[in-house]
Design goal:
This protein has 395 residues and is of the alpha/beta class. The protein folds into two domains: 236 residues, Rossmann fold, CATH 3.40.50.300; 139 residues, NAD(P)-binding Rossmann-like Domain (Rossmann fold, 3-Layer(aba) Sandwich). Helices cover 35% and strands 27% of the residues.
Length: 395
C-alpha cells in the first residue's frame, strides 16, 4: 500500500529557465515539513508548482500515487489546500462566510451549504482557536486573527495536504508560535501533511518533522531537522558570517568580535550560558571552563565562538586545569558564573592573585564585585575601560 501523500522525481521548476532542479520528494501523512532557504531560492516557485499553479519544466509530481496533471480540478481541491502569500481583505464578508468558501469543492453544482458543511466550518474555526471570530468582518481582523481565518478556510476543504507560503510572515511572536503550534497539532490529530516555507530556522528545528533546504538552484538537504540542520549546512545555506546555528541547542548564536578584550567565565552546568551571550553582545571574546564533556555551557560557548577548557575521559584533569589557568591569566577580566568544584576555586584564586577584575552575581563568590542581578552585572562590565591594553575601573 502506497503511504506517500506527495512524491516528485527529477523535478525542475521555474519560469522559462530552471530555478530549482533535481527535486526528489516523498512526504507521508501527518508530517510537518519546513521549507527553508534564502530569499530568491525558489521556495514560492516550488509551492506554486506543487499546487499546479505553474507547470514544471521537467520531471513528475504524484499526489496520492496519481499523476498531478491527471487529477481533475475539483478532485485536486479536495486533496490539497493552498495558502500562498495573500493580502486580500474581502469587504463585507464575515469570517464564517470567508471560511465557508473552503467548502466549494464539496457543495455540488448549486454551491449550497448543507448541515454537514456548516459543521465542518465550525470545526475548522475551532481547530485554529478562532470560533469567536465567526461573526466578525474579515477586513476588521488583526494580522494574527486573519491568518487563523485563512488557515480555517484551508482546513474547511478537508485536505490531505496543505501548502503554505510563509504562514507566519508579519505576525508577532505570540501569534507566530500559536499558528505553528496549531499546524503541528493538526498534523498529529488529523494526519494532515503540511509543507510550509519558513524563515525561522530555529523554530523549524523545534517544530518540524522534516526539513527541505533549497539554495543555489538545488535541494541542499532534506530529512530530519536533527540530522540536516548542522552548523555547517545552515551557515552555507544562508551565508552566515558572524553567527552560528547549533543543532544541539536548536538556535542561532551571534559571536563576539573580541574588540572589547578577552574575558574568562568560570562556569559549568548551564551557569554560564546567559553570561556568554551578554559578553558576546558587548564585543568580548571568551574563554571558559573547566567543564566535563557534554556540559551545556560547552555547547553554548562553542556556538558563540568561545574556547572551552573541557576535561575529557582519559585525559589528565591536571593538564586541563593548567591550560585553563594559563588562559585566565592572559585575560582582561574574569566573570564568576558560579561554577563549582576544586577547579572553579583554583580559577578564582588565580584571578585574585593576578589582580584581575572578578565580577559575578551575588552568591557566585566573586570578591571584586558581587552584583544583585544580570542588569547590574552588565553595568559593571560597562564600567571597565581598557587603558593601554589592560582593563581598569572607570572613574
Amino acid at each position: 500500500m502506497n503511504r506517500s501523500i506527495l512524491q516528485s522525481a527529477g523535478l525542475a521548476i521555474g519560469y522559462g529557465r530552471p530555478v530549482l532542479s533535481g527535486i526528489d520528494l516523498d512526504f507521508g501523512p501527518g508530517q510537518f515539513i519546513a521549507l527553508l532557504g534564502p530569499n530568491g531560492a525558489g521556495k514560492t516557485t516550488l509551492l506554486r508548482t506543487l499546487s499546479r499553479h505553474i507547470r514544471p519544466l521537467a520531471g513528475e509530481i504524484r499526489l496520492l500515487g496519481q499523476d498531478l496533471n491527471a487529477i481533475a480540478a475539483l478532485d485536486l481541491a479536495r486533496i490539497v489546500s493552498v495558502c500562498l502569500t495573500d493580502n486580500a481583505r474581502p469587504p463585507l464578508l464575515s469570517v464564517g462566510e470567508f471560511v465557508a468558501l473552503g467548502r466549494y469543492p464539496h457543495t455540488g453544482f448549486m454551491g449550497r451549504l448543507s448541515a454537514r458543511d456548516a459543521e465542518v466550518v465550525g470545526e475548522s474555526l475551532d481547530a485554529v482557536a478562532a470560533g469567536g471570530l465567526a461573526g466578525r468582518l474579515v477586513e476588521q481582523l488583526s494580522d494574527g486573527e486573519r491568518q487563523k481565518a485563512i488557515l480555517a478556510r484551508a482546513l474547511a476543504q478537508e485536505p490531505r495536504l496543505m501548502l503554505l507560503d510563509e504562514p507566519t510572515a508579519h505576525l508577532d511572536l505570540k501569534h507566530r508560535v500559536e499558528v505553528l503550534g496549531i499546524l503541528r497539532a493538526l498534523c498529529r490529530a488529523k494526519g494532515l501533511t503540511v509543507l510550509a516555507s519558513l524563515h525561522d530556522v530555529d523554530i523549524a528545528a523545534k517544530i518540524a518533522d522534516g526539513v527541505l533546504l533549497v539554495g543555489d538552484g538545488r535541494v541542499c538537504g532534506q530529512g530530519l531537522p536533527e540530522a540536516v540542520l548542522t552548523s555547517e549546512k545552515v551557515a552555507s545555506l544562508y551565508g552566515f558570517a558572524a553567527a552560528d546555528f547549533d543543532g544541539r541547542l536548536g538556535g542561532i548564536e551571534f559571536r563576539g568580535d573580541g574588540r572589547a578584550g578577552k574575558a574568562f567565565v568560570i562556569a559549568g552546568r548551564g551557569t554560564g550560558a546567559t553570561l556568554f551571550r551578554l559578553l558576546s553582545k558587548k564585543g568580548w571574546s571568551i574563554e571558559t571552563g573547566v567543564f566535563d564533556e557534554g556540559d551545556l555551557d560547552a555547547f553554548v560557548a562553542a556556538a558563540l565562538g568561545a574556547k572551552s577548557h573541557v576535561h575529557r575521559p582519559g585525559e589528565s584533569a591536571d593538564d586541563t586545569l593548567a591550560a585553563a589557568l594559563t588562559a585566565l591569566s592572559a585575560c582582561d577580566m574574569v566573570i564568576d558564573g558560579g561554577g563549582a568544584g576544586d577547579e572553579a576555586d583554583a580559577l578564582r584564586a588565580r584571578a585574585a592573585r593576578r589582580g584581575l577584575p572578578l565580577l559575578g552575581l551575588a552568591g557566585a563568590r566573586a570578591p571584586t564585585a558581587a552584583c544583585a542581578s544580570v542588569a547590574e552585572l552588565s553595568a559593571a562590565i560597562d564600567r571597565i575601560d581598557r587603558i593601554r591594553g589592560r582593563p581598569q575601573w572607570a572613574a
